[in-house]
Amino acid sequence: MGKNECPNLHPQSMCPAFGGLRVLTRIEGATVCLVGDQGCLYGLTFVSHFYAARRSIVAPELMNVQISGGTMIDDVRATIKKIAEDPAVTFIPVVSTCVAETAGIAEELLPEKVGNAVVQLVRLPAFQIKSHPEAKDVAASALLGRFADFDGPKREKSLLVVGEIFPVDAMAIGGVLQRIGVQSVIAVPAADLEDYAEAGKVQACALLHPFYERTASLLEEKGVRIVSGNPVGAGAIAGWIERIGEALELDVETVRKVAAEEKEKAAEVIGKFGNLSGKVIVAGYEGNELPVVRLLLEAGLEVPYASTSIARTALGEEDHRLLSMLGTEIRYRKYLEEDMRAVLEYEPDLVIGTTSLDSFAKERGIPAIYYTNNISSRPVFFAAGAGTVLGMVAGLLGRKDVFRKMKEYFTTLP
């Protein structure tokens, strides 16, 4: 770090419990019992309504007197019992956060079932889980470990798809898998605990995002074949389809035919944006940034810098090697200050980043949009996803002079 450079002080991720809540609150019949302090309850109630599932979470009143007085576990059990009085509640995830005392809550002291509701402890402390995407993996693997039926017979030509994706992407994936001969598909995270049970019967699993490491380890231990990567961009689509065909031993000719068709469709869409030029920085905290960078590079754009909040993983190593070879500087476990320095160094035409970075870029007259709301809320897979993402990027790059004129106007005001 140079003498005048700002130190790295701001890691970029929301509270890990937020990622876990996105998985847990969307399950039908679930009511979360949050074991944390009152600040956790305030902030996570907001995100459970606004970002997750518009559902309330319930918590015992854990102040210093309860924690220091040793009544915490009794208060938690009483809260679980109170939640279970509602006959509509069939699942009570007990979420512990990073308050020292609540993070170490003893699972064996909690009931496994109360009334109609099964109870499952899910630990989401920030000192252990460094980003909210990885907390999705923690929650999903905890649910699979508890509910998946790994002991029964496997379903023929069955696939588990793991990843929080846009609904249109789910339909596109389902359509392609049906065409290559996949007979049964289960998707996780799921809205029904029965899906987690059925997930134990699959022969293979397609992990769409590289941060599902715990889930991958659990499934591999149970004999499930793992397929990494995702169908983003023409270059990756055919390989992804063929790997699934190989994992499930599907008809080779059929798989190759569908893979070639889908690759051609995506290549045609990307070709329509063949006149794209410009320099883009991608700096999100969702953990799925590198495939998007791959798509932008495939469309002819320059992406000198990309960052993400997750760690470098074996599941994402293929993307890492490819992007590095193509000249993209990649930062894992990124800090806001690193992203800001990248904006100054590379002077991009567009920033797809976090809200803090977007503000920094816009102050300099650089077009910038929020990655989570503009990428994670859109389809990105297959040809349709490529068209959606590249169409948005093309529109923004076409209006970059407007941002510069706005900056010039406001900086010249008396």
Describe the model:
- With 414 residues, the protein is an alpha/beta fold.
- It folds into three domains: 16-129, Rossmann fold (3-Layer(aba) Sandwich); 158-269, Rossmann fold (3-Layer(aba) Sandwich); 273-411, 3-Layer(aba) Sandwich (Rossmann fold), CATH 3.40.50.1980.
- Helices cover 48% and strands 14% of the residues.
- The strands form three sheets. A five-stranded parallel β-sheet has the order 11-10-9-12-13, sandwiched between helices. The protein has a four-stranded mixed β-sheet with strand order 1-2-4-3, with helices on both faces. Strands 6-5-7-8 form a four-stranded parallel β-sheet, sandwiched between helices.
- It is globular and about 65 Å long.
CATH architecture of the largest domain: 3-Layer(aba) Sandwich
The biggest beta sheet reads: 5 strands, parallel
**Mean pLDDT, nearest integer?**
90
Alpha-beta content class: alpha/beta
Chain-wise SSE layout:
Layout: H1 16-24, E1 33-35, H2 38-52, H3 64-69, H4 72-84, E2 91-96, H5 100-103, E3 113-114, E4 117-123, H6 132-147, E5 158-162, H7 167-180, E6 184-188, H8 193-198, E7 204-207, H9 213-221, E8 225-227, H10 234-247, H11 252-272, E9 279-283, H12 289-298, E10 302-307, H13 317-325, E11 329-331, H14 336-346, E12 350-353, H15 355-362, E13 368-370, H16 371-374, H17 382-398, H18 400-411
Parallel strand pairs: 1-2, 2-4, 5-6, 5-7, 7-8, 9-10, 9-12, 10-11, 12-13
Antiparallel strand pairs: 3-4
Helix pairs in contact: 1-2, 1-6, 6-9, 10-11, 11-17, 12-13, 14-15
Concise summary:
This protein has helices spanning 16-24, 38-52, 64-69, 72-84, 100-103, 132-147, 167-180, 193-198, 213-221, 234-247, 252-272, 289-298, 317-325, 336-346, 355-362, 371-374, 382-398, 400-411; strands spanning 33-35, 91-96, 113-114, 117-123, 158-162, 184-188, 204-207, 225-227, 279-283, 302-307, 329-331, 350-353, 368-370. With 414 residues, it is an alpha/beta fold.
